[in-house]
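YM 10:42: Large ribosomal subunit protein bL31 sequence, as discussed on the call
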Amino acid sequence: MKQGIHPNYVECTVRCTCGNTFTTRATVSEMTIDLCDKCHPFYTGQQKLVDTGGRVQRFSDKFGGAAQARLDAAKAEKAAKAAKAAEQEAARKATKEAKAAEKAKRAAEYAKKAEAKAAKVAEKAAEAPAEPEATEAVAETPAAE
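YM 10:58: structure's back
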């Protein structure tokens, strides 16, 4: 190991933002840290939002609210998709109602035709009793011969 090029390795007091303090060895005599084993989410099982020195604020200042603009654009896009879906659903419902109305119309026409046919059959049935007497007479004639 070369002499004179390495820093001194001294006792170091480490202070966490949660208030925990412990001693170790390092090249500096004091350190301040954001997370330690007493407050880190991995060890505690609790989520903790760490905003050291206003990093989120500095990011917002640096990019001029670009992140918020993206969030707003995403919300607007989502709202547009929802409106389009609602419009398509309304069109689908209107088409379904139109088909149902057409089906009801065809059913009514069919019922009319069925009634007309039934009326014709009834008319023929009313005329039919006169014909069976004639057919009986015709039927007896060949038997007599």
